[in-house]
Design brief:
The protein has 172 residues and is of the alpha+beta class. It has one domain: BirA Bifunctional Protein, domain 2 (2-Layer Sandwich), CATH 3.30.930. Helices cover 22% and strands 24% of the residues. It contains 3 helices and 7 strands; from the N terminus they run E-H-E-E-E-H-E-H-E-E. A hairpin with a 6-residue loop joins strand 2 and strand 3. The protein is globular and about 45 Å long. The N and C termini lie far apart (51 Å). The mean pLDDT is 86.
């Protein structure tokens, strides 16, 4: 065991006091049609769900996918209720964007420390998602491999923002 940390970890999540700390990893990637990607397909895969893209009529079914330990949708205060439904959210995102090269969402992939308990990993990922909500984005959070060697979170965020004052959804 290492010495206790001289500071309190951010977001109130307790870290184990050890000299073996997690390796930091964060990547941010656009999900865009120009790369042949779909927000509906990406959300289905990350959440281990079955979703249909209303724009193309294609259905993706990843309900048998292993390693998806947690998923939820977090929306800014004042966002309409339908934005908390994965099919409605990503179907609307795909339909509202008309360009063939549109960026329909962003993915934030974050490594989660193995030193944290599964519950604390969820709290940490949700805290980051809430921070994105405060910027006006709806976030589809999925946590993979909680019991394995590579716990990580996928946070898909809308590219259009929600105005928390009046719930304006800028076109969704």
């Amino acid at each position: 065991m290492g010495k206790p940390l001289p500071w309190t970890p951010p977001l109130g999540v307790p870290f184990a006091h050890s000299s073996d700390m997690a390796i930091y990893h964060l990547s941010v990637k656009p999900i865009s049609r120009s790369a042949g990607r779909s927000s509906v397909a990406s959300a289905a895969y990350r959440s281990g769900d079955r979703l249909t893209d209303p724009r193309t009529g294609l259905t993706w079914d990843y309900r048998r996918k292993r390693g998806v330990d947690y998923s939820s949708i977090l929306a800014p205060k004042g966002a309409p209720d339908w934005m908390r439904d994965r099919q409605s959210l990503w179907g609307s995102v795909e339909q509202v964007e008309k360009r063939k090269d549109a960026r329909t969402s962003r993915e934030f992939e974050v490594a989660l420390p193995v030193e944290l308990s599964p519950g604390d990993r969820v709290k940490l990922a949700e805290a980051f998602s809430v921070w994105l909500n405060q910027k006006g984005m709806v976030v589809d959070l999925a946590i993979h491999h909680q019991g394995g060697q590579n716990p990580h979170a996928h946070m898909m965020a809308t590219t259009r923002v929600i105005d928390s004052e009046d719930g304006d959804d800028q076109g969704y």
